Amino acid sequence: MRVTDRGPACFFLVLSLLAAGGCGGRADSRVVLKVWDWWSPASSPALKQYFHEVERAFEADHPQVDLRYQFVPFGDTYSQKLMTGLSSSEPPDCFQTSIIWARDLYERGALMSLTRRMASDAEVSPDHFFEAVLPYCSRGGDFYGVPMAMDANVLLYNVDLFEAAGLDASPESIRSWDEMAEAARKLTRRDPETGDIVQAGYLVDGASAYFTGLLPWIYANSGGFYNGDETAPVFRQPAVREAIEFMTDLLYTHEVSLPLTSNRQDLQLFIQGKVGMMMAGTWSGYMLTTAARKLRFGMTSFPPGPSGVRRATCTWGNMYVIPRNARRPDLAWEFVRFYCGRENAARMLKILSRNSPRKDLYETGAWREAVRQQPYLAEIPKICALGGRYPMARFNEVNDAFRPLYQGVLLRSRSAEDALRLGEAAVLEILRSP
């Protein structure tokens, strides 16, 4: 495996084997298959091992293929490179796409329909996947992506801090927002001289690049962000206002959170034992077990609010897709079905401790062994099954419009009613624009 650096914008991982007799100078006659992703092997030894094993396994089954990955940082860099690549004569053969781009790419006609292939392929037929992830990769019954991940927001908590505060550390012990606030107060510690918080009971999320930290609280309060067909926002529900007000109460009434700052390193603060509870993701467990092996933590869903009737979260699933103008669509499909299949789901679990959108993974001995080694994993499929929808329709534009309004409420520069009124009008205009 060979990694070459082509500049700060992206990493290239060339996954190839030497052709037989390569030292003698004979050219490699295999077909090059180009795959794009933002999971970079440069970011961790585990990811390097993972992609090496993906290469080895796929090329062993397809000896005529030279699999070449191109890794591009997530965010604007990735989306901009996609736009350029998909309009060129040399597009990637397949690539991972986020839910925040996939629907727009499909509606612009950039992605190939995979409905027929999935329906006739027992390895990746839709019934193998959790229902929660299927809406992100299909539209009107037409599939344009195959799920390769299933992520959700989680309420992450420090078990040792819970026990030291006399709190029950079982996953669903906090049953309401009132109990949540009470637990956060018990977990909060202050400097006796300055009064500054030195251990936050709960870290309110709000200074990040996205507003989506609010979503699990909306869903746990039986609210929504869009209507059912994603044609209009539904911000005027009391459930949405109550969720925003609960965040401001945690900040200013209960005073259990560190201040909102753009440079606050939430997960690092958690690792350092300075946070009792925070919002995180299902993927955070791998980071924690890698960086702090002795840290005792748990993950759970979000307790119901005053208008809520059950626990909830936000669940989504990124996918692999094939461009409409892919030069090798049949080979690309072979890779997609391999990458999103059960064998690779087990590989991802073993090396990266990542869960899967595949229902059949949770029936395997590999999953049971993973839970034995990392007990927090047992909660992940239950959490994901409770998830509401990530607002993927016109996400980037909607985020640019709504995030500063929401942050204004958290910073006390505007009221919740004002933010929701202005936000509803702005988002509705975005959704109705061509």
Tag the structure with descriptive keywords.
434 residues; D-Maltodextrin-Binding Protein, domain 2; 7-stranded mixed β-sheet; 16 helices; globular; disordered N terminus
Uncertain ranges = 1-26
- Give me the side-by-side strand order of the main sheet: 1-2-4-3-5-15-8
**Taking all residues together, what is the mean pLDDT?**
92
> What's the number of helices?
16
Supply the CATH class of the largest domain: Alpha Beta
Q: Give the total of domains.
A: 2
Helix fraction, binned, reads: 25-40%
Topology:
Layout (H helix, E strand, L loop, with lengths): L1 E4 L5 E4 L16 E7 L7 H17 L3 E7 L4 H11 L7 E4 L1 H9 L7 H5 L18 E2 L2 E2 L2 E2 L3 E8 H6 L12 H11 L1 E2 L6 E7 L11 H6 L17 H16 L12 H6 L3 E7 L2 H8 L5 E4 L12 E4 L2 E3 L7 H11 L2 H11 L12 H9 L6 H5 L2 E3 L5 H16 L5 H17 L2
Parallel strand pairs: 3-4, 3-5, 11-12, 14-16
Antiparallel strand pairs: 1-2, 2-4, 5-15, 6-7, 8-15, 9-12, 9-13, 9-14, 10-11
Helix pairs in contact: 1-12, 15-16
Textual characterization of the structure:
With 434 residues, this protein is α+β, with helices and mostly antiparallel strands. The protein folds into 2 domains: 2-150 and 317-340, 3-Layer(aba) Sandwich (D-Maltodextrin-Binding Protein, domain 2); 152-315 and 392-432, 3-Layer(aba) Sandwich (D-Maltodextrin-Binding Protein, domain 2), CATH 3.40.190. It is built from 16 helices and 16 strands. The strands form 3 sheets. The protein has a 7-stranded mixed sheet. The chain is globular and about 70 Å long.
